Amino acid sequence: MVLNYIWVAFFVIAFCVAVVRLVVWGDLTVFPAMMDSTFASSKTAFEISLGLTGVLSLWLGIMKIGEKGGVVNVLARLLSPVFVRLFPDIPKGHPVTGSIFMNIAANMLGLDNAATPLGLKAMEQMQALNTRKDTASNSMIMFLVLNTSGLTLIPVSIMVYRAQMGAQQPTDIFVPLLLATFFSTVAGIIVTSLFQRINLLNRVMLLTLGGACAVIAAIIWGFSRLDGETMNLVSTTVANVLLMTIIVGFIAAGVRKRIDVYGAFIEGAKEGFSTAVRIIPYLVAILVGIGVFRASGAMDVLISGVGTAVEACGLDSQWVGALPTALMKPLSGSGARGMMVDAMQTFGADSFVGRLSCVFQGTTDTTFYILAVYFGSVGISRTRHAVPCGLLADAAGIVAAIGVAYLFFS
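Request: output the structure for the sequence above.
Response:
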């Protein structure tokens, strides 16, 4: 229901802004631009779904081998103490906890292509437990917020963009980004727990969050001792070694269990193909809405208004130049990437705005894209508190990114 209001708002606001531009300023290009964006966005949505087909087939095939080989069940048992508290609706030891863990791990390593199919698999398993098939369960919402908060340990792609844009030290955003995305994820967990009345003040959760803080600190310390080239090499190598280890480990577990590994892969791959087809209409809807909103100039109006309000309050408005990336990220990953590159081109890769745009890009994830794809894949139309929780996590990440950027780069 919330997505319905947001989708309608995109079109209504965009149309009103376009009418003002046409009537007041005589801008004859705005409506053609909006119509062009509808066709371009529809094409993009289909191309994304088509591109996901192969990746979904591959990873859901691998996941099926892991299920039949017993690997997912082992992960589920290991994670039960934590997951029974964050996901109390999921039975203890259920295989979906293994899928959730694999998805979160892939996101943390910056492996988006692997994370999406693993996440869709987890959603299908949670939908099987869901008693109201058109309404998001608490477990689904917590899982979505963990995804949209965008916890990333190795932001390889952002560092590569900075190198291409001529940054003297492409990795200088690594520590600030890691801190900001960690705050975003913790905020998402806390906000969602408040909505769902989950008690986080228990020994297991306190130890888990404390351990996570220690791991984050250790990673920051370790990478801060490396030069830029070595950091890029190590992070890329670690991510790819872990990914290949997962694939080979799942296959080895299947062989050990003496299952038909090839047959299991084909079975899972077929599910991947059908899932890719199912999400096409949902992607078309959300991307067309975003495209029209952007083409109308409504995003530019919003940014200008924020800048004026900040200056009127007597505050430093230096960070406002990077705000388009932050506001676009919940709507479109590629759009936010374009905003980030544009900020580095306009202000310089090593400028405050250029660096902050990069931190914004890695702090959170594409909230509405994830909601459309994940909920659309299982036919969820009533999202309950998923959108406000996801956006509050995004907001916490944006505020943290600004504060950390001023601390490191001002």
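The mean pLDDT is 82.
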